[in-house]
Here is the input.
Amino acid sequence: MTHCPISILSAVDFNDEVIPRDDLVRTAREMLDEHGYVQLVNVPDDFHYVDFASEFGDFVPNYGGPVVGDVRPEPGMEDVYHAGNTRPLTPHTEGYDFTTPPPRYLMLWCVTPASGEGGETTIGDTKPWIEALDDSDREHLYSTVFHWKTTDGIARKGLDLHTEHPVLEDMGAPTPTVRFSCNNLLHEDDDVAVRLQAEWQRRYADEAVWIRYHRNDVLLWDNWRVLHARNAFSDPQRHLRRLQIRPAGVLAGVQG
Ligand SMILES: [Fe+2]
Here is the structure.
């Protein structure tokens, strides 16, 4: 089942005039709080993506150092679980393999959309899913320190990252900070984690919103609350750019 997004914000108004930056940021914040994500459409070619993103916090470098990352198929990476190929990605949060708190927000924007089928970013809001957990499972996910590893693609690039932290933590946001992976949460025989992965994948398949990009579209989401994934595609020209954003003034973020 596919679900169309409802949290959609236009960068220009009904007169085709560019909406002032502060107004755009304010409305985007409101929509993020309500829905956990916002898709920005009708984005002009001269839109200042990095400047817009800087309103939401400081930047966290991508793997290998680039602050603005590229998401596009990379040679020699088609056979592993990795964002830099054309294969699907399973639901996850970003940064479960960081020793620091995960990025609060992720922002993608579309340089070249995928032609043909596929290539959507999908997102699923965990807020109702956490509320649906029974109390003992929720407490277990707060109190149990799990082992996590990075993706096979990143490991192949020489970053064999391992971390230890719970699935749920309170980091000062209105909702719990979630860290989740279908394949890199190493729970061994933990019944609660096994059930969580099965249940959240089932709900994700039913409830996730599919974002189909047009050129210049922006997708911004609350990575402490929302899972994301990707549908497979065939067009090797598909190209997104990405920024990871943490709350301003926290740890060693790059000033936006
Ligand atoms: Fe991701």
